Each structure stands twice: as structure tokens, then as C-alpha cells.
């Protein structure tokens, strides 16, 4: 038992080193390429720092294919690797070439009605295709396939919706992960998922210090991870409740601002500002 603990601590330390090194080199690369966008304070900040997750994933895949096999789950760990890498790449392409004049499902489909195909729409279509593929890998029935595909796809988009304030997406990821691992029916899932905390912690610090932004690359990756963890962790009844919650949030976001909702809730506003270098001004921008 002691040897196993030492082994996992050593592995985690290695992932911290990998994450620190990849963060340093990738952010230098993005900065030299002037890959920047305005943040909520209208400052030019390095964006798409979520590419660090893609570098991390190359090493994490080796770990999962070695230690992750201890968890006997249908489609594991290939399902997680496929959706995390696929959505990270799609997010990076959207960061590179995306037209940010359009947002939300209504915005992208409205653009399509005018004969304009947005990168966001392409990402949504390809993302759902990947979600469906992963759902087929992990599910035991047709109903499970549909429910799980929708959970994964909407989880990805939900974290994308949150990525309007520094640290918000990662804080939501960490809270979601804690709840999932505390309630999960899969023993050991938290242990093999622990290395993910290394790049998450580093990018959270960079985000809160206003040194970089995750971009769609990072938010898509995190949403994909949460979606897969959810569909593995719970039975159909709970997953249906999760799906209903995601649908309600998305319907709300089409007409209202999530940022405004958070700012009006004392606890959520406190959590949103926790650790920020500068406190944001109240706004009512549309998501």
C-alpha cells in the first residue's frame, strides 16, 4: 500500500514538472506569435493557454494506458482520450480562425440561415459527432447512447459558456470534479484522474493573475473531461437529471447573461472573484 502511494505521488510530481515545462514553453510560443485577445478589462492577454492540456494529454495517455487499465470500464480509457484530444484540437482551430461575432446556438444557426457557416457551428457539429462516438463506446443501450452523447456535448458547451471571466471555467471544473468523485460509483476513478490537477492548477494561477486565457482550447478540454466522468460515474436516472440541468442552463443562456446571473448571486459572485488580481465590473453582456 505504501509503495502504491509513493508511486502515485512520484507520478503526480512528474506531471507537475511536465505541466510547468509545457506551460512555460507554450506560453512563450503564443506570446512570440502575438496570439492575444482582449480580456474583460480590455487588456491584451495571451489566449489559448489551453494548448498546455494537449501537451499534457500526450503524457497522460501513456499513464492511462498503463495504470488506467486497472479500472474495468467499457471503452476506458480510449473514450476519454478521444473526446479530450478531439475537442481540444477543435477548440484551438476555433481560437485560430473563429468569428466571435456569433455566440450561442441561436447565433450560429442564425448565421447559417443567412448562408454563413461559422467555425463555431462546425465545432458544434463535429463535437457532437465525437460525443456520439464516445457515447457508443461507453454505453450499454440505445437510450444510454443518446443521453450520454447529449451530456458530453452540452457539458463541453457549458464550460465554453463560462469562459468569460478569469478562473471561472477552472473553478467550475474543480467543483464539478469534487462532486463527481465523491459520488461516483467507479472506484479508483479519482486516483487515475489526479494527474489532471497539475496543469489545471498552473493554468488557474495564470488565469487569475490575468497572464493568459484558456480559450476554447482549454474550456472544451475541461468540458469533455467532466462529460466523460459523469457518464461513467452515474446510472441513467442521475444522468437524466444532469442532462435536464444542462438543457435548462443552455435555454437560459440563449436569452440571458450567465455573467449577470452570477454577479447578482452573492455566493457565486464571491466565488467568481476569489483569487482575481482585479475585481471585474458588473456587466450584463449576452453570452
Give structural notes:
The chain has one domain (2-273). It contains 13 helices and two strands. β1 and β2 (44-46) form a beta hairpin. Mean pLDDT is 89; it is low at 282-287. With 287 residues, the protein is an all-alpha fold. Strands 1-2 form a two-stranded antiparallel ribbon. The chain crosses the membrane at residues 45-63, 75-93, 128-161, 173-206, 226-252. This is Glycosyl transferase family 4. It comes from marine sediment metagenome. Keywords: Membrane, Transmembrane, Transmembrane helix.
Which features would summarize this protein structure in a list?
transmembrane, two-stranded antiparallel ribbon, globular, membrane, 2 strands, single chain, 287 residues, Glycosyl transferase family 4, transmembrane helix, disordered C terminus
Order of helices and strands: HEEHHHHHHHHHHHH
Q: How are the strands of the largest sheet arranged? A: 1-2
Structural class: mainly alpha
Assembly status: single chain
Distance between the termini: 48 Å
Number of strands: 2
Please indicate the percent range of residues in DSSP E strands (runs of 2 or more): under 5%
Query: Uncertain runs with pLDDT below 50, 5 residues or more?
Result: 282-287
Question: How many helical elements?
Answer: 13
Number of domains: 1
Radius of gyration: 18 Å
Helix content: over 70%
Q: What would the principal axes of the Cα set say about the shape?
A: globular
Give a short account of the largest sheet: 2 strands, antiparallel
> Taking all residues together, what is the mean pLDDT?
89
Protein name: Glycosyl transferase family 4
Transmembrane segments: 45-63, 75-93, 128-161, 173-206, 226-252
Organism: marine sediment metagenome
Keywords: Membrane, Transmembrane, Transmembrane helix
